[in-house]
From TrEMBL:
InterPro entries: Aminoglycoside_PTrfase, Kinase-like_dom_sf, Mito_inheritance_9. Residues 93-370 form the Aminoglycoside phosphotransferase domain. One of its GO terms (cellular component) is mitochondrion. Pfam families: APH. GO terms for molecular function: transferase activity. The keyword Transport does not apply. This is Phosphotransferase enzyme family protein. The keyword DNA-binding does not apply. Keywords: Transferase.
């Protein structure tokens, strides 16, 4: 977290870890505030920083906050008789997709200003959808989210950026408390989250898309349908909300932002599945250019025509990418939190009750089977053994204290996941039914991978997902006759060769993740940057030297994962 006292063109920034430990204090210019400084990248850093750079008129933002807090608008949660003349200080928190300023007024009121970075997605729709979604959650589903004071989705406003002004969240981020809590408190939190998920699962919608206020969308973008097919909405709510296009950044990245693509709303799962491939068809024909894919060939370029053929195979199989329906409703579109982790849940540190759930940006209404997931905060990072408890290892008494602490931490983590699974089975049958769908990942992986597959160099993974359906056709689609697509022996041979190289690269990335927590995009904490970058360079050199000959060495240089994009 960063604290800044605004006194003109110079800002004093104090950065803190979430536990309050100060690790740097310095003066910066206002221009530096626009830059992203929370993390660094060991490759492609210029690109990563550029898509998180956000310029704004700071004085205009402060004026907007003062005006909102001092307003007599009954929509405001502030006392309308309290007058605020100026903002005396602010703090800045950087997320991967947003810049968040905590503004302190001269009467000690605090307002949070949230501004999406370019990487968050289409600024207008991302902001408008988040505001409407949070209002729907609060007003219709009674799920606690921060109250919104004012907002603007129009970048041409005086601030020069989209923004949301909201109440400061009461309570403490769960991440500061979770690992100090006894299991009784953890189980209580799991039960609270399951009740919130049950409320989400209780509302099924008429279409796939994102939630908006009706007056936020142009008429040609409205779904023209009721927002929910299961809730008894007050007329005011039914008239206020609608479903509109999806805001996922993948659908808007680069040239896509200016293309006329089908981003929803969609009437059903098959419409969605087909649209994802048809959008890629449009993009590929317009913008794709040959490039070298050294995982597949050192001499022949990856051609757009071959990718288009793969997309046609996808479309031939698209009806079979929708899972079969069961007794429980797993297919109706349902709103879900996009990434529920410990720091997105705020709790009262005394009662251990949830006070707010934050970060609903880009939340979408999708078929429940697309949303099914154990919340990241409860999911054990590796395999979970059978039974309720982990058996002590035979050499437990010989372990040092750090190893025993690690075992105890894993034991609690596994117990939390198991408790979540059992309680969900009791209290949220729709969610359980989605977990129990047979071969679900095989069916839905192609539609998850296809968006951006060409420029994201994910063609191999899309092809592998399609081949898995072909390989398992008889068990996936019994009684439907032969598979509608065939795969030539030469294509299988090429794919097997590419898979061998891709598996080697995956092993390298796994090594980096396990050793330094390094994700595939190379993001690290600034304090670890030099150390991790040097260690990766050492591994790279050793990898190159392991080649049997110069030809292999040149190939190894081409396929090394942690380097800038070549095309």
């Amino acid at each position: 977290m960063q604290r800044a006292y605004y006194g003109g063109p110079i800002l004093q920034i104090t950065a803190e870890d979430l536990d309050g430990t100060i690790f740097v204090a310095k003066y910066i210019s206002e221009e530096e505030l626009f830059e992203y400084t929370r993390n660094r990248w060991i490759y492609n850093e210029t690109l990563q920083l550029s898509i998180r750079y956000l310029k704004l008129d700071l004085r205009q933002l402060l004026e907007a906050a003062v005006k909102a807090v001092s307003s007599n608008d009954p929509y405001s949660f502030w006392n309308p008789h309290l007058f605020v003349s100026r903002s005396q200080s602010f703090q800045c928190r950087e997320g991967l997709s947003n810049k968040v300023l905590i503004l302190t007024m001269d009467n000690d009121m605090e307002v949070v200003a949230k501004l999406p970075n370019p990487i968050a997605g289409p600024g207008y729709y991302t902001t408008a959808s988040e505001v409407a979604t949070r209002e729907f959650l609060r007003d219709v589903l009674d799920i606690p989210t921060p109250s919104i004071i004012a907002w603007s989705a129009d970048r041409s406003n005086p601030v020069g950026a989209e923004y949301i002004l909201e109440e400061k969240v009461p309570g403490t981020p769960l991440g500061q408390l979770w690992y100090r809590w006894p299991m009784k408190s953890r189980r209580n939190m799991i039960e609270q989250i399951i009740q919130i998920e049950r409320r989400l699962a209780s509302a099924t919608f008429s279409s796939i898309g994102c939630i908006y206020f009706k007056d936020s969308l142009p008429e040609n973008a409205l779904s023209g349908s009721i927002i929910s097919s299961t809730l008894s909405l007050r007329p005011s709510a039914a008239d206020r909300f609608t479903l509109g296009l999806l805001v996922s950044n993948d659908l808007w990245r680069g040239e896509r932002a200016n293309m006329s693509m089908n981003r929803g709303p969609f009437r059903g799962p098959l419409d969605f599945v087909e649209a994802m491939a048809k959008n890629e068809f449009l993009y590929t024909k317009e913008y794709a250019r040959p490039y070298m894919n050294y995982h597949r060939s050192s001499t022949e370029a990856q051609l757009p025509d071959k990718f288009l053929r793969l997309l046609r195979q996808y479309l031939d199989l698209s009806p079979d990418m929708v899972p079969l329906k069961g007794a429980e409703d797993t297919h109706s579109p349902t709103l879900w939190h996009p990434d529920l982790h410990l720091d997105n849940v705020f709790v009262d540190p005394e009662t251990h009750n949830i006070s707010q759930i934050i970060d609903w940006q880009s939340a979408a209404v999708m078929p429940l089977y697309y949303q099914r997931a154990i919340p990241r905060m409860f999911e054990h990072p590796s395999g979970v053994p059978c039974g309720w408890t982990m058996a002590l290892p035979e050499n437990y008494n010989d372990l040092d204290q750090d190893e025993k602490d690690k075992f105890e931490s894993d034991r609690k983590s596994i117990a939390c996941q198991k408790y979540y699974e059992v309680e969900t089975r009791v209290h949220n049958p729709r969610h359980v039914a989605a977990f129990q769908l047979q071969d679900l990942d095989v069916r839905i992986d192609p539609s998850r991978i296809v968006v951006g597959a060409w420029e994201g160099e994910a063609i191999f993974f899309l092809r592998r997902a399609i081949y898995r359906i072909v390989d398992q056709w008889e068990s996936l689609c019994p009684g439907l006759g032969p598979c509608p697509i065939g795969i030539k022996a030469k294509d299988l041979e090429l794919h097997a060769s590419e898979e061998e190289i891709s598996s080697s690269v995956a092993e390298i990335l796994t090594l980096f993740r396990d050793a330094w927590g390094l994700p595939p995009d190379g993001m690290v904490h600034p304090a670890d940057f030099e150390r991790v970058k040097a260690a990766v360079a050492e591994q790279r050199d050793a990898f190159f030297e392991s080649a049997d000959n110069e030809t292999d060495k040149e190939l190894y240089k081409r396929i090394w994962p942690c380097q800038g994009k070549q095309k």
